[in-house]
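Complex record, two chains
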Amino acid sequence: MAKIDKAPFEEFLIHEARLLDDRRFRDWMALFTDDGSYWVPAVPNQDSPFNQASLFYDDRDLMKTRIDRLEHPLIHAQTPPSRTAHIIGNIVVESADDEAGKYTVVSTVMMVEYRDEQQRVFAGRQTHTLKRDGGGFRIAQKKVDLINCDSAFEAMAVPI
Amino acid sequence: MLDGHADEISRLIEPGRVHRRVYTEPAVFELEMERIFARAWLFVGHTSQVKNVGDYMTADLGRQPVMMVRHRDGKVHVLLNRCTHRGPKVLNERCGNAKRLTCCYHGWSFDTDGKLLGVPVPEGNTATFQNDQYNLARAPRVGEYRGFVFASLSPTGPSFEDHIGPMKGNIDDLVDRAPDGELALDVGMHRYVYNGNWKLQVENVLDSYHVPFGHASTVNQQGVQFARREGDKEGAAVVEVKEKKTATSWKDRKSFIVGNGHGWTSNTELADGKRSSPAFDAYKKALVEKVGAVRAEEILKPRLHNSMIYPNMSIMGLNIHVRVIKPIAVDRTEVTIYPIRLLGAPDSMNWGNIRLLNVTHSAASFVQTDDLESFVRAQKGLRSLHTDWVDISRGLGAEDADPEINAVRGLATHELAVRAQYKAWLGYMQGAA
């Protein structure tokens, strides 16, 4: 495989994380393909979102319902809202098919969330399945494998 | 300070109100651990979680660690997860499979029925040492109904039948939905914690009053919730938007109480005639083939929303699951929610159920997160010394006997179920050791 220029992928992942940190959830959703999905498994090495429980498994319809709720004035779990800071690193382009315009990018994500006098950290490995779209990319699937995915969580209202 | 005398406990509960200390006072919590969680029948797990010989799962009954293990003869044992030598938990994983159970500290080793197999350096044992004096302790009483295993850590008290009898129909309602008449809790779990008392979750399960406002962010501009069952296009009408009030159909929901703190809420009627999807249709076909069309219609007719088997388990009939409530401290609670796999149903139907449960009850779900916010805020608000009393009087005196079943009924937006829970609570808490 020819040496891949990581820069456009890194730029894309940072852009995606920035949209989440800025609570621009609709713009974030628009990054996904029409059949795209966002998946946060609830056990390590979970091989399918269908046959087991997941923390998140949203297609575009569910993403929209989630975001409608995030924008609802009476979402008590976001009063006050979360503030988040993502940092993305250790980016590896695991597979690249330039002809099909399909890429798999693995990276490490940390998200610090502050809300209502409490701060907590989420960390794990994220796998983006990306499709080339003009000069940029769209997300066919974003999967976040949290290191503590099978622990008991306090309420989580915003995507990681 | 509370010393556990019955009259002092009884002063915490009055008609239509409970004292704030039942939620905030560490001494009350300590007493609950002794008098409720070390005595009552508690849900431990489902036999499908220990399907094969050597399979185990660990749990806490109150704060006491136990294990459920399947022995070579197929029998499921509920044992105390405490080495009989110096006390460490013997099993440390949430589930797994083991040929023998070995303590990490000195290597004492037990069979899957709890029998002590051997200890390292046995020549150091006293002359009178006998292995069978050191078997893992077993839960004094264990009962099972259709795969649901309950245990009591007290050798005496009401029988399993007395405890579970009034709720058997609610378990049947869930299990009968499986074309093979059997279900499995083997498709993962949701786990969440909150900084609040365990009873806040127990009360909430049968509280239909909170839904229109507490879950306002889950309904659309027409006041209708999103679909929560496979095959539905939309969920229940919760709010009448123009009038800005709770929907009439929601207000019609009923609560039923049957003693022992148990009870349930009825379901809002949904568009059952129109319920259809490839997964649901295939499931319905499978069910009809097994039980016939008439019985299948009965089974599929939504009857129950939540059923509470006091004090630590509930069943939801809408988007099906089993919930287990575990107190950790007076202001800390952990909850586990198991999706249900209906044996004999097509995978697509089970997958639909799993998927919809992510949406409503994962720690990142649309519904549960609002409830958790209310529990946390309740625990904070109850620090207030302005008043000692928490009001649970809605519908007080409006209950009546259901002539068809041996239950007392009222409206689900009333608080009879909460009052019934405190009646049972008081019964447990006043019982001297």
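Note: The mean pLDDT of chain B is 96.
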